[in-house]
Design brief:
The chain is of the alpha+beta class and about 400 residues long. The chain has four domains: about 60 residues, no CATH class; about 60 residues, Roll (SH3 type barrels), CATH 2.30.30; about 70 residues, SH3 type barrels (Roll); about 100 residues, L,D-transpeptidase catalytic domain-like (Beta Barrel). It contains five helices and 25 strands. A seven-stranded mixed β-sheet has the order 1-10-19-18-17-25-20, with no helix packed on it. It starts with a helix and ends in an 11-residue tail after the last strand.
């Protein structure tokens, strides 16, 4: 019995001595930081938490140890603050565009003054030859058992040559207050991971396209791989979201005045009054072959509808496009415009020939809100460091 007690005491004293030495060593590190290790062999150093504390400069800023340290110290607000936004969800049956539009799926397409002239073999008034072409629909008629569509005054085409479009029902949000955190729309379905670069967590909720989230923190895991924290233990990669961040007015904007920000990297748009963001939404800007210009511009013309076509080619070229009655068009730099796009629902991704495409409801809201002379700041600002050129 005595021997057992003595044994326990020896073990206790040994452990206490070890803990004391560790505590004393930690105290000494705090009071008297150790000198930096020699330059040689730094690449072979294992960055343990202790080394991160003592010789931070020798460890990669975004190495596993540093990342784990930062993630462990993230403190989310409890409860999570709601986004100060009003999501507008009108009746899906509501007419969101001023016309019914149709895509020309059979080309070339002859256009006749009346279906009777086609039946008589008379020449068409004009022909649509190639490319991407959309027309406005005035109405439909039946002639000798065949359906025809009227697309303009004295212009008719066979109904089976067209496919009727379904404009996007998406709309951005009003902001009732300045957001405390950046926010974003999910641009494709994603299930979050518990930590950056981990496989999706099967127990996490599946976020759907156009769902809104707040961004509470971020982690850069590679040169261009950024992860966002959107909830407790919920990390998603940057490519799954289109983010909105409150930015100050650029030089040239009148203090307190209205202005519009277009973020080409994030594919988002925000409307401001001075420093206060009042509206935000998604866009589709120019493809790499037809980029949207960057800079500070001003709206120089507003038109309820406008016809748009490719100025560089003519009908007959495979890259020709012709779009009738593009709604709520505001030109800000030569032929480049903010306008409604009734022909797609790809907002959050590049899609256009250089203009800034908006969902129809967004285009109408912005058209009513902005005026000729309103500044439009267009920029491309990635959230991670860019590789230097040669």
């Amino acid at each position: 019995m005595v021997h057992n007690i003595i044994g326990y005491l020896l073990v206790f004293l040994s452990l206490w001595s070890g803990v004391g030495r560790v505590a004393l060593a930690s105290y000494e590190v705090l009071r008297y930081p150790s000198p930096a290790p020699p330059e040689s062999g730094i690449s072979d150093i294992v960055c343990t938490p202790g080394r991160l504390w003592r010789w931070r400069q020798t460890c990669p800023e975004y190495g596993p140890g540093a990342t784990a340290y930062r993630i462990a110290h993230i403190r989310l607000p409890n409860p999570l603050p709601p986004l100060p936004v009003v999501e507008l969800k009108p009746d899906p049956e509501e007419k969101v565009v001023p016309y019914t539009y149709a895509y020309v799926r059979h080309l070339p397409l002859a256009i006749y003054r009346h279906p009777m002239e086609a039946a008589l073999g008379l020449p068409p008034v004009r022909v649509l030859y190639s490319g991407t072409q959309w027309v406005s629909v005035v109405g439909t008629v039946e002639y000798e058992g065949q359906q025809w569509v009227q697309i303009n005054a004295n212009e008719f085409v066979p109904a089976d040559a067209l496919t009727f479009g379904r404009p996007s029902q998406f709309q951005g949000v009003y902001l009732t207050d300045q957001p405390a955190y950046p926010f974003a729309w999910i641009n494709r379905p994603v299930r979050p991971s518990r930590v950056p670069q981990e496989t999706p967590d099967p127990t996490a909720p599946l976020y759907s396209r156009y769902q809104m989230v707040s961004i509470y923190a971020q982690e850069l895991r590679a040169s261009q791989e950024l992860w966002y924290l959107i909830g407790p233990d919920q990390w998603v990669e940057q490519r799954y979201v289109s983010k909105v961040t409150v930015d100050p007015p650029p030089a040239g904007v009148v203090p307190g005045g209205r202005w519009i920000e277009v973020d080409l990297f994030e594919q988002t748009l925000a409307a401001y009054v001075g420093e206060r963001m009042v509206y935000a939404t998604l866009i589709s800007s120019g493809r790499s072959a037809t980029p949207t210009p960057t800079g500070l511009f001003r709206i120089w013309g507003k038109f309820p509808t406008a016809k748009m076509s490719n100025p560089d080619v003519r009908d007959g070229s495979p890259i020709w496009y012709y779009l009738e009655d593009v709604p709520w068009t505001m030109y800000f730099h030569g032929p480049y415009a903010l306008h409604g796009a009734y022909w797609h629902d790809s907002f959050g991704f590049i899609r256009s020939y250089g203009c800034v495409n908006l969902a129809p409801r967004d285009a109408r809201w912005l058209y009513d809100w902005a005026s000729v002379g309103t500044p439009v700041w267009v920029h491309f600002t990635p959230p991670f460091p860019q590789a230097e050129g040669p």
